[in-house]
Automatic annotation (TrEMBL), chains A, B:
Pfam families: HGTP_anticodon, tRNA-synt_2b, tRNA_edit. HAMAP family: Pro_tRNA_synth_type1 (MF_01569). Gene3D superfamilies: Anticodon-binding domain, Bira Bifunctional Protein, Domain 2, YbaK/aminoacyl-tRNA synthetase-associated domain. Catalyzes the attachment of proline to tRNA(Pro) in a two-step reaction: proline is first activated by ATP to form Pro-AMP and then transferred to the acceptor end of tRNA(Pro). As ProRS can inadvertently accommodate and process non-cognate amino acids such as alanine and cysteine, to avoid such errors it has two additional distinct editing activities against alanine. One activity is designated as 'pretransfer' editing and involves the tRNA(Pro)-independent hydrolysis of activated Ala-AMP. The gene is proS. Belongs to the class-II aminoacyl-tRNA synthetase family. ProS type 1 subfamily. Keywords: Aminoacyl-tRNA synthetase, ATP-binding, Cytoplasm, Ligase, Nucleotide-binding, Protein biosynthesis. It catalyses: tRNA(Pro) + L-proline + ATP = L-prolyl-tRNA(Pro) + AMP + diphosphate. GO terms for biological process: prolyl-tRNA aminoacylation. This is Proline--tRNA ligase. Homodimer.
Length: 571, 571
């Protein structure tokens, strides 16, 4: 296509509410425009990217045997009442009444609708397993829409739903979907991780999130350097350490530590590493009025999700107040320690390898130095995984060590089991002729979100750097000052048509603009491959090639350029 | 694709609310399923048809330089308030409030949104003309959703909007769009007419509707046998007749016509053709209490839209009540006539050629026979086009005569002028450096409606007959009793892959079902070309070919079948 035909809508100004880089670049590059809070119009360039995400997703859904359907966005309340979600779903569900005063919602997801379809259409076990999917507009009345299309009120999802006779079949399809998602994100050309996840409000037991890695990601992910293991950092297990506890060397000492309350203050005051300090946290126990002491190495963070799952600890996790601490430890928080402590103690596993450590002395302004298990206090009987993993921890699957990165959730797969099919009586007649509730899986990809996530992962100070598979155009054709040279104009037109004929998606920048302006636009909109044509090059029968990721252009003979690009594009 | 993979959802039962054939067949063939009143899920087979409509539409929009965008379905009330439509649009506009109590609607159309985009994005006359389009889900809260996807509450539209500096540019784009629409409907393979239309509530002056012809259509269309002239029957002009009025032959006679009130009764009673009778209708005049007599040939129908536009006639057209008729004519309706009538008389043009006609005598139970203009009463001074055209009338453009057919409106193009751009201050700086309001056109195609309209036009008692361009699959491959013959199975599989490789969209019916059942399904879902394979044919190295439109199958050598189909499909 030609830029002269109003295709580009690049701008310089960034509105103040665009705080994340993808939102800024999507506006600057003219991919989207804001209509109202959380509502965006996709401009031609952005829509091209969106369609590529859709196309790759659709192709892989077809490969796993998905049947594409298209369900209404408008959903009757009655179905949501069957599953109880009409009442449970919060104000994020956009609700409305039709002219006959009947209740509807704008679907944020389609479990109820597909389950209704399945219970009507599927009669026999012979039809199972079956996968339905759609690529469709969804609605969520976000309290604070933000980050552009990343957290908007209207967005495009691919949602798939599978129905099964038994758990083995559900697991098979779940695994196939996991693989399809892996293929999809690989085809997008994005760095991503599939992480073990909590399934949240959609329900069910087993689920994985697919995260595009980006420094700006909302979620922290721990993944193995040597395997496919990855988990939301809250979920990753910190294994029992394998080494031996070093022997005690120094004698126990009581020291004054005036005004030193936090581990940071204490370690700085004593000129020791935080990991030499023991952190003691007093939280409420499960029984009314009871408290529990949690022990962690000074450099580790308490993982509240893990802690509140432990028997004896109150859920949600609640820290004891000063009065409760005083009653239990006879001191204020900041000087607590396990030596001589008369309440239940639960120690993080890492604590077991500590020796000659520092901890509070249960007297305000005092700590013990060179504390050792078995000598100064008993080795903790009750150890748990209490902490959030850190970079370098061994991977829970035993392969390699963990790296922590940030990610943007763009996909989520769930085993729903009978959560919806049970409530909605979606069953079939099995081989034995008996009615049986179907099991379900559901599988989502945030199609519009992928576009933003791709930018969060791939950009520089000059603009977007599209992976070729998602780029609105694969190649930019930039003739410099074409309007002053008929020869250049003719050659550029000819090359444009040659590239099109070779099946290359080329954007012909035929605007009457300065070369610098042209290059800046092409870099801003992130076209991965750029051909620069000039009169000087034509004298030598060459054009310049510049990758978006490179600063240097290289000369390529005009006669080689098609083959050169086809190799770059692997077509 | 293979039918065995849950692709078909054909059923025998038709729900009682499916009254039109397209609705019945879409349910029976498994193209759609009802979720709630006016809300349908598109099943895989239906979605394939929908996508073909979209694809052809998109390709032709690209050819006229349309820029594809995607606007939100959710639209803020503020923009609708700018044009006054928030108040004017009736209960068909689905309205809702977000969690912050702000007003939104679900767009039935996008004039406000695109005008807002244009006023923000377009700065200079150099950017004009510009055409934006989208293919998107629309909402209309129909009081009585019916006819399946033909009049549903959620549907897919292609809507395009153009912006212009002047009327000449608007007319150019309008003409190009008219041509693009013609190409689109031709490519669909549908019989259609572009008709001059009223522009209704969207506004503007010039507009055309595109109607798919079908006996079940809601609208009657008059079109020329010899030109492209077509108009909604209400709009088509009945020209002044060109012949001479025959001379009077018989003497005026007053006859008794007891209980003969209607033209049908009267003409039957007198054994004459209705066209020999004069129909006199008394309607209210523009001035309070006044009435007007309208004269029509007995076989013609009053066109109320034409009549109420005439000066002196009340609008909306209102018939006089019995008391008013009695005061004006001294008789009851059924015996009224123009002889000696002392009120304003407006005659339809055709009436001028009547001679020796019958009309009411303004005395209950009596009529005049052999009435003649100029002899028994004055030739009407005031003649108008009062009637609806009938088959055989001369075409208003002077070329050929009119045929009346019924149509389903599937497209509509408008010249909006400055209706929206004026209200929303959408202007640009023109060549002279001055601010100028842009002119607009808008162009819609009811994408989901096209699917239903195609079926209304193309079906028989066995099911749908798809035009090849819209068929979910071009070719059905039906091996008979394949599961009993390995040789047949191998040949069928081989042919299936050969056809796929040849770029033919083939549906392989690999279900373990009886041949009759298979054929019935393929005919119901309307696949245009069917290949039947059997063991007997294989002995002779032939397969059978049957067109959906034909009752007879023909033998084709197996080696020729690909070429044969490619010719049929013109690929």
């Amino acid at each position: 296509m030609r830029t002269s035909h109003n295709l580009l809508n690049t701008v310089k100004e960034i509105p103040a509410d665009a705080v994340v880089i993808s939102h800024q670049l999507m506006l600057r590059a003219g991919l989207i425009r804001k209509l109202a809070a959380g509502l965006y119009t996709w401009l031609p360039l952005g829509l091209r990217v969106l369609r590529k995400v859709e196309k790759i997703t659709r192709e892989e859904m077809e490969k796993v045997g998905g049947l594409e359907v298209l369900m209404p966005a408008l959903q009757p309340a009655e179905l949501w009442q069957e599953t109880g979600r009409w009442e449970k779903y919060g104000p994020e569900l956009a609700r409305l009444k039709d002219r006959h005063d009947r209740d509807f919602c704008l679907g944020p997801t389609h479990e109820e609708i597909i389950t209704d379809l399945a219970r009507n259409e599927l009669k026999s076990y012979k039809q199972l397993p079956i996968i339905y999917y759609q690529i469709q507009t969804k609605f969520r009345d976000e309290i604070r829409p933000r980050f552009g299309v990343m957290r908007s009120r209207e967005f495009i999802m691919k949602d798939a739903y599978s129905f099964h006779l038994d758990q083995a079949s559900l697991q098979d399809t779940y695994d196939a979907m996991h693989e399809a998602y892996t293929t999809i994100f690989n085809r997008f050309g994005l760095k991503f991780r599939a992480v073990v996840a909590d399934s949240g409000s959609i329900g069910g037991a087993i689920s994985h999130e697919f995260h595009v890695l980006a420094d700006s990601g909302e979620d922290a992910i721990a993944f193995s350097s040597a395997s496919t293991y990855a988990a939301n950092i809250e979920k990753a297990e910190a294994l029992m350490p394998t080494g031996e506890r070093p022997s005690a060397i120094h004698a126990l000492t009581l020291i004054d530590t005036p005004q030193q309350h936090s581990i940071e203050e204490l370690s700085a005051f004593l000129s020791i590493a935080p990991k030499q300090c023991l952190k003691t946290l007093i939280v409420k126990g499960e029984q009314d009025g009871s408290v529990v002491a949690l022990l962690l190495r000074g450099d580790h963070e308490l993982n509240t999700i893990k802690a509140e799952k432990i028997a004896g600890v109150a859920s949600p996790l609640t820290f004891a107040n000063d009065g409760e601490v005083m009653r239990a430890c006879q001191c204020k928080p900041g000087s607590i320690g396990p030596v001589g402590l008369a309440i239940t103690i639960i120690a993080d596993r890492s604590v077991l390898l500590m020796s000659d450590f520092v901890c509070g002395a249960n007297q305000d302004g005092q700590h013990y130095q060179n504390v050792n298990w078995g000598r100064d206090l008993p080795v903790p009987l009750h150890t748990e995984d209490l902490r959030t993993v850190v970079t370098g921890d061994p991977s829970p699957d035993g392969q390699g060590s963990l790296t922590i990165a940030r990610g943007i959730e763009v996909g989520h797969i769930f085993q729903l089991g009978s959560k919806y099919s049970g409530a909605m009586k979606a069953g079939i007649v099995n081989e034995a002729g008996k009615y049986q509730t179907m099991l379900m899986g559901c599988y989502g990809i945030g199609v519009s979100r992928v576009v933003a996530a791709a930018i969060e992962q791939n950009h520089d100070e000059r603009g977007i750097i599209w992976p070729t598979a998602l780029a609105p155009f694969q190649v930019a054709l930039c003739p410099m000052n074409m309007h002053k040279s008929d020869r250049l104009k003719d050659s550029a037109e000819q090359l444009y048509h040659t590239l099109l004929a070779a099946g290359i998606e080329v954007l012909f920048d035929d605007r009457k603009v300065r070369a610098g302006f042209m290059f800046a636009d092409m870099e801003l909109i992130g076209i991965p491959h750029c051909i620069i044509m000039g009169d000087r090059g034509l004298d030598a029968n060459t054009v310049e090639y510049k990758a978006r990721t490179s600063k240097e252009a290289i000369d390529i003979p005009l006669t080689d350029i098609v083959r050169f690009l086809q190799e770059k594009l692997a077509i």
